[in-house]
Model the fold of this input.
Amino acid sequence: MIPVDTINKLEQTWRSMTEFCETLTEAEWKTASQLPNWSVQDNLSHIIGSESSMQGIPRPDHTAPDKSHVKNPIGDVNEDDVDVRRSRSGAEVLAEWKSVMEQRLATLRSGDDAYFAQESFTPTGPGTLADFLHIRVLDCWAHEQDMRRAVNKPGNQGGPAAEHTIDRLIRTIPIVVGKRAGTPEGGCVVVRITGEVQRVTVTTVVEGRAQASTDVPANVLCDISMDSDTFAQLAMGRAGADDLAPNISISGDAELAHRVVSQFNMMI
Done:
């Protein structure tokens, strides 16, 4: 099956990102982001590298001299993609991105069922190319927000790609509430996401397993509320719970709530 909806979300995010990047000064391109050692420009360079690879464009023969902050093999490759473009201007990197983006869209729009069904590596394990693209929406939207946050130019925090990303991230809330935070048997934690993407998650521990539901029971141990940008930063490891505490409202068991929000990071 051709994942038309996923492709539409990718294009929406890519074009939003491009429009945002067209507003940047050279100083803004070089502004540090929340990602260690990465500037606004580095975030876009990373996306270029990933999409170029998927397009079959050969990677430059380059090895980054400093990988002390890299945590895994994926990050190792990413750092090479980023570092090779650091000597270029933001305008040059943006021009390369525009070219790669149009090539990728042409390929995705012309792909058939077999193309999207082919086996592919994904950050969550083996899958198809369609599965991988579903995760690419999250990754691309996340880096757009990293860039926007760095220069205080918010945008694209609502709509299909934002909702897609938040919905993927909330899938792991039961793991956080049950296993990571150690919510006791029979206990329930409610997480309310407000702002441009609004969601309510209800997680109860039953027979040692955290289970998601839609109804809020009477035995809620804590009720946690935050806007979707705050949730995204926590869930993607961009900032910690203490840093974002002013944006988080808690009622009930404050100690349990702090354990929950401190364990939200779901990214590798």
